[in-house]
Design a protein that fits this description.
Chain lengths: 114, 115
């Protein structure tokens, strides 16, 4: 299995631009999670989906952030407009709800907003 | 409220010595407990889990963890540390009765193994 796939791996953009991060979960997994990691705040859960339905988005920082999961094999996290404080590593993880709940993480997208 | 605590920001140990990375938790009902490791510029990697059964759980790379219900702890251990074990370690928990499927992660402990 290829594991969780994230793209791009690195993204550098200017303040005010739209940023779209992409994730392909492990085939057969029905839960998908988006996290953000920074030195200051550590690992933060932004949003998660079960069976493509958003369950908890209370971690999404503000309305500039949105996430979608149109099907079981694809999810996006969009930031519009981006700000320098959004600079972080964004991880996607997938798992099987109702089984043992461990999550499998992708390699992350390092976002730099200048 | 459900929570997990890693009381040490950093643990330093010499190669060949035993290591312990501490984790305590608070959940309603029985817990599902996990350890993850993160190497520099990589995603988190699943190490081991406790769901039920034997309190001593063995995982990847020679790591093990002991579930202690009375102390609400799930410390990560290894009998003989390697320099290559140097990384950031996260403990995570989910309560059996918890709604949803999310895990609660600790803040992480940096393990530094010196040669």
């Amino acid at each position: 299995d290829a594991g969780v796939i994230q793209s791009p791996r690195h993204e550098v953009t200017e303040m005010g631009q739209e940023v779209t991060l992409r994730c392909k979960p492990i085939s057969g997994h029905n839960s998908l999670f988006w996290y953000r990691q920074t030195m200051m705040r550590g690992l933060e859960l932004l949003i998660y989906f079960n069976n493509n339905v958003p369950i908890d988005d209370s971690g999404m920082p503000e309305d500039r952030f949105s996430a979608k999961m149109p099907n079981a094999s694809f999810s996006t996290l969009k930031i519009q407009p981006s700000e320098p404080r959004d600079s972080a590593v964004y991880f996607c993880a997938s798992g099987v709800a109702g089984l043992s709940y461990e999550q499998y993480f992708g390699p992350g997208t390092r976002l730099t907003v200048t | 409220a459900q929570s997990v605590a890693q009381p040490e920001d950093q643990v330093n140990v010499a190669e060949g010595n035993p290591l312990t990375v501490k984790c305590t938790y608070s959940v309603s009902g029985n817990p599902y407990l996990f350890w993850y490791v993160q190497y520099p510029n990589r995603g988190l990697q699943f190490l081991l889990k406790y769901i039920t059964g034997d309190n001593l759980v063995k995982g990847s790379y020679g790591f093990e963890a002991e579930f202690n219900k009375s102390q609400t702890s799930f410390h990560l251990k290894k009998p003989s540390a390697l320099v290559s074990d140097s990384a950031l370690y996260f403990c995570a928990v989910r309560g059996v009765n918890q709604a949803g499927t999310a895990l609660i992660f600790g803040k992480g402990t940096t393990l530094s193994v010196s040669s």
